[in-house]
Amino acid sequence: MKLIDKHAWIEIQDGKILSTRSKGRTKYYFPGGKREAGESDFEALSREINEELSISLIEDSTRFLGIFQAQADSHPDGVQVKMTCYTGAYTGTIAAASEIEEIVWLKYQDKHLTSPVDHIIFDWLKERELIR
Ligand SMILES: Nc1nc2c([nH]c(=O)n2[C@H]2C[C@H](O)[C@@H](COP(=O)(O)OP(=O)(O)OP(=O)(O)O)O2)c(=O)[nH]1
Fold first, then answer.
1. Which residue in 22, 28, 44, 106 is a FRET match for 113, CA 20 to 30 A apart?
2. CA distance linking residue 35 with residue 99, whole number of Å
3. Which of 29, 33, 24, 58 is nearest to 118 (CA)?
């Protein structure tokens, strides 16, 4: 089984969760990406988040949330994506950069606009009353 190992940043404000859409895509994804050789978890996460959202994550505030796995969107059946999710504070102003075309704040009822692994994350957050 092929496994795509990713880190993702979960940012909730006012009960809504930040999500992104890349150029040429229809589904919304949580921001993040794959580790490059030699990077720590925080280095990988903060690099990806800076590239996609133009902000800097603050290392001391970063907290592990959970690991979630499902079929990867836009890949053949059986390819799974594993998302290691973190929360954390940041400096700067969120603005779409590089491949990101759109940034949205989604409610639980918007879950269907996202990928399978994000459905699991939405349910997990809703059970804990972290999103509305
Ligand atoms: N960052 C992120 N990736 C996700 C989410 N849900 C989900 O299925 N993925 C999948 C989409 C990508 O097809 C897959 C592989 O990521 P990748 O880092 O290899 O993607 P990529 O930009 O090279 O895109 P791809 O052409 O391989 O699809 O991870 C999500 O919420 N956030």
1. 44
2. 17
3. 29
CB-ligand 1 contact for 30 (6 Å cutoff) = yes
Mean pLDDT by 10 residues, the chain (132 residues): 96 98 97 97 97 98 98 96 98 97 98 98 97 96
- Tokens 């959970």: give the residue: 66
Which atom in ligand 1 lies closest to the alpha carbon of residue 19?
31
Q: Which of 117, 120, 125 to mutate to test the pocket of ligand 1 (most atoms within 8 A of CB)?
A: 117
Contact 123/38 with Cβ under 8 angstroms?
no
Fold (topology level) of 3-127: Nucleoside Triphosphate Pyrophosphohydrolase (3.90.79)
Cα atoms found within 13 Å of the Cα of residue 91, Cβ hemisphere only: 4
pTM: 0.95
ipTM over 0.90: no
Query: For residue 67, which of 80, 58, 77, 57 has the smallest C-alpha distance?
Result: 80
22 alpha carbon – ligand 1 mean position (Å): 10
Domain ranges of the chain: 3-127
